[in-house]
Amino acid sequence: MPIRRATLADVPALVTLERRAFDPRLYTPMTPARFRANVASPTCEAFVFVEDEQAPDRAGAVLGYSLGLKRRGGDWLRFYSLAVDAAAKGRGIGEVLFHHFEDNARRLGLSTVLLEIREDNAFLRTRYEGYGYTIYRRVEAYYPDGCACLKMRRRLDARGPE
Asked: What predicted TM-score, i.e. pTM, was given to this entire model?
């Protein structure tokens, strides 16, 4: 599988993906400095999906990323962000990255994945509920445009995605 840990060398590609994927009127974008700090942190779990040898002209190109944060001593992993290159949409990269993220949480011995979505994002709500996530909290005016946030969680088990 063409997924590997993100490195500091990937930061420019991560910033580009972030800027293309997220409207700054709706989401607060991560800065290059924030990406560097996260990728270098032992409490960050960041992965990239790279183009494989099937596309020699783009081999090694970063097509997507997932990023999460853990707390020392905690038994959960907070899924923070995922983005896929627009030219690679429809290939299932986001889903592969997300399930890899959950599998990594299991390998780390963590029991829960937490995530946040915009209340008005019915697509992601349906997707994550389909994966077994449940809403445990709503936060008013969480995003830059005033949209509320739905905080969701899923207890992990050894079986993997359902």
From this structure: 0.88
